[in-house]
Prior knowledge:
About 60% of the residues lie in helices and about 15% in strands. Strands 2-1-3-4 form a four-stranded mixed β-sheet, sandwiched between helices. By secondary structure, it is α+β, with helices and mostly antiparallel strands.
Amino acid sequence: MSDSHVDGYAAALFEIARAEDVVERVADELFRFSRTVDGNAELRSALTDPGSPGEAKSRIVGELLESKAHPTTIRLASILVDAGRARDFGRIVDQFVATASEHGQAAVAEVRVAAPITDEQRTRLAQVLSAAKGRPIDVKVIVDPSVLGGVVTTIGDEVIDGSIRRRLDQLRASLLAG
C-alpha cells in the first residue's frame, strides 16, 4: 500500500477517535493490538488471509478485544481488517499514533519491558524521558519477555537499551574476547 493510503487511513482513524474524544486511549490500545498481531504468526495469518471474508476477520478482532478495549478501538480495528488492510495494520496504526502524538505535541517512545509495569511506573518513565528529551513523551509499553529485565526504549531512530539481555550479551562478548 502506498504511503498516501497509509496516511489516509491513519488520518481517518485519528478524526474518528478525536470526534469521540478518545484519541489517547484508542492510540494506546491500537498500538498494543498491532504489536500483538505482529508478534503472533497465526493471528496475523488469520487476519490477512485473502480467502477469509472480512466479517470473519472482524469477528476475530471483536472477540480478542472484547472487554479489553474501548468500543471505538474495536470498531476501528474491525474496519481496517474488514477493508482488507490487515497487512498494513501496523503501518497504519504507527502513523495514527504519530499523528495523535503530533496533535498532542509529544514524541512517541516504544518501551519494551519483560513484565507489565504499573501506571505509576509508566508515568514516572514518561517524566524521565520527557525531561531527558526536553519535550513531552508519550510512552507505549510492550511486554516482551526476551528483554529478561530492564527496558529497551525506542524514540524515533534512537534506541536506549538498558536490558539485562544486552548486559548478558556484553558480558558474554567480553569473556569470549578475553
